[in-house]
Amino acid sequence: RRSGRAPRSDCPALAALGDFQTLPLEIFQMVLNYLSVKDISMLSMVSKTISGRLINYISTSSGSRRLLLQDFHQELPARRGGASILEHYRALGLLLKRCTLLLPTRDRLKYVHKVLSGVSCFKLNGCASPLHCLGLQCYGVFLQILTAGWDELECHRVFNFLWELSNLARKVQTVVSSKPGSARRLELRIRLFCRGVLLSPGSRRSDCAFWLTRILKPWPMVNQARLLYIIFGPVSSRDGHVVWQKMIEGPTDETSLKGLADAIKLLYGTEAREWTADDVISLVDELSVVPQEWLMENNARLLLLSGNSICFTFMASKAVNGRAVELARLMVFMVLVCEKDLYCMDWAVRMMQKVCKVFSSPWERNNFLQCLENSFARMLMDMLQAVLAGDRDEEDSSFLNLFHLMNAQASFHKEILSVAMGSSSSS
């Protein structure tokens, strides 16, 4: 009499398949086509034997077609279409993480590379239209899930593997040693690869700090600044290329500086253990002359966006090193930015008070305050001279600058008087 149970097997590997041992391999793979990637991922944890079969399935042509979606240039709305393919690769990252769980890191990376090598949009130069492609972002979320929870040594191996695979060392050397903008396409490719893959949006701050450190640390400080500008600096809305003259030609806005400021905050934070305060200050100093000396207003705006801690540390370093004139001029531009960008002026006064405490003697402090007033006077005279000379453009910027500076000075001194009068009345 026939039994309704599956035939028993004395082979442990087949027994580990459970009821699937009755199915031919072809039928087993057909069943997988009806499961979601998340379901296949759960199935991979049932046994080592099933996990092995899934690894084989992923490597087949039908498995690749099923799992390696490549509609990265779809015309669907970004929220609906973009989110779905990103979620797909997030789930695929978890599937490969589970399937390769028992393999050494090197073997895991080789297998993952073998699986993904046919996707051209995952390569640094693989896509003909990188600005309209979700490929690198999908690769980024895939790696983010795959490497989640890996220790630092394993992540070092991941970085070295990707760096060598994409030949990034030679390419970065080309862009940081060439004239800015002379290799625009390569600058764009490096920017998109680093931001999409290594600094994947949604990553934890500690992970971003680790990857950004790996990108920057091998290079001298001057090259670090160039590379930071390539990855986070302002770009053209027309073609996505880095705009090198943005900080030199005129005052810029917060949007152009936000990426750089966020990167500086990340490196200055507790997550970036390999960076000292002096390292970050030196990097900011070096950044302010990329590719030439920035307008002081743009320096001040970057420091304001970088946060109180880095702003104070940067200014205190100038006070300690006896650069009172330079510090005073920077303080004036910070006051101007507070006026233009609608920050509370009492922030500037409190910052000035903190910086004054850094000076080692009353004479040095008084000298700084004198330099501050001289800087206000000199800037007002220069702007007034520009207005009287009739140097006006379509936006009448010379008159507008004078208007902003006069308002800034008035607001700043009003806050100082308020603090002074408050102190005298309380005493």
Automatic annotation (TrEMBL):
The lineage of its organism: Eukaryota, Metazoa, Chordata, Craniata, Vertebrata. This is FBX47 protein. It comes from the Eukaryota. Transmembrane segments: none annotated. The gene is Fbxo47. InterPro entries: ARM_FBXO47, F-box-like_dom_sf, F-box_dom, FBXO47. It comes from Vidua macroura. Residues 17-67 form the F-box domain.
